[in-house]
What we know:
The chain has two domains: about 1-120, Rossmann fold (3-Layer(aba) Sandwich); about 125-220, Orthogonal Bundle (Arc Repressor Mutant, subunit A). About 40% of the residues lie in helices and about 25% in strands. The protein has helices at about 10-20, 35-45, 60-70, 85-90, 105-120, 150-160, 170-180, 185-200, and strands at about 1-5, 25-30, 50, 55, 60, 75-80, 95-100, 125, 130-135, 140, 145, 165-170, 210-215, 220. The strands form four sheets. The protein has a five-stranded parallel sheet, sandwiched between helices. Strands 8-9-10-11 form a four-stranded antiparallel sheet, with no helix packed on it. α2 packs parallel to α3, α6 crosses α7 and α6 (about 150-160) crosses α8. The protein is elongated, with a radius of gyration of 18 Å. Mean pLDDT is about 85; it is low at about 180-185.
Amino acid sequence: xxxxxxxxxxxxxxxxxxxxxxxxxxxxxxxxxxxxxxxxxxxxxxxxxxxxxxxxxxxxxxxxxxxxxxxxxxxxxxxxxxxxxxxxxxxxxxxxxxxxxxxxxxxxxxxxxxxxxxxxxxxxxxxxxxxxxxxxxxxxxxxxxxxxxxxxxxxxxxxxxxxxxxxxxxxxxxxxxxxxxxxxxxxxxxxxxxxxxxxxxxxxxxxxxxxxxxxxxxxxxxxx
Length: 224
């Protein structure tokens, strides 16, 4: 049973979500303030955090920083759906961002997807003799040095890892990225992220050995 931290100051919403998720085999610990959320992250172990950005004693961004330091994957819940706030949240490392009001089934789907993408139950994945990904710590390492990956670059890499050996079409990749980033990610943006990712993990980005192009179909992460 997965343990989730819910940081939400709307008591009615928190109670409803807790009851709904408990029926789906999740154990929910609810916190109503920034202070309670930070205390929970410091004292308990969770598989995922749901963080409301607007809280009575501060905002959820500082909680996200604490979650990131604790290697705790998180999703933002907020009434604010503007692009700036969405991008800011994702750049902090959020696995997803869902605006209120939302449907419980949609949130459930996003929770399951976030847990899968986070690799929370995983470990170290070796991509080549030089590159590995520590999914518990949420980092990629090349020749002993941590690579700087943006939140979306890392999520894209996790999508490939979770489907390694299989061909992923551009449409499928866009669908997965949209779940994490919102509809502003388009086909051109996907091309940019794949190029950036290759530039960082490949020895020769023009002749990739890790993320290969399958002509006419899509891309495939080679199994080591």
